[in-house]
Amino acid sequence: MLFEVAILEKPTKKEVEDEGKSERLVFGPKAVVANDSQSAAISAVLDGGTNGEKLEVDRSRMTVLVRPFA
What range defines the domain where residue 22 resides? Predict the structure, then answer.
């Protein structure tokens, strides 16, 4: 199946208070081929999606958004 995946990084509490930062898009949205939505999310996080890009993100602050491409 084909999925569309995006990864957001949430700012720390300090970044929000001091600098007024908001969420940052660090990946996508990009198409990922996988068997299910969980596999698509894992592929995007571990492999950087379809292009093998290295993600520069704090994994404890990231949100992975996945939707089927239909």
Answer: 2-68
